[in-house]
Amino acid sequence: VGKGGGAIYESASTILERQMLHMGSLAVQPNSNVLKSSFFNPNLEPKLPAGKRRRGQPNQVWAKYVYEQCLSAAGNRQNLLQYWQSSHAAKSAWVRKVQQHCT
Fold this sequence. Notes:
The protein is mostly helical. The chain has helices at about 5-25, 35-40, 60-75, 75-85, 90-100. The model has no long low-confidence stretch (mean pLDDT about 85).
């Protein structure tokens, strides 16, 4: 860990990596999973709050941001859905792709 901004950058990168891996692990859960259904629509896009946001609430929803980072890492939605399969090979490939994206 370097001095100054390097430490902050590495921490943000580590947090993003964990968030992307967590989102991928949620995506492969069965549709009956309550946590999955609270984060994703049936088409595996993140659920966004409906209506006008309350005063003081952030404009950015973390699920939307992390999903966009996942799309960026995968290249496109079709590739992302392939990474988000429940097979061991797909999970391993997703971990490698996320690590590559976050470093």
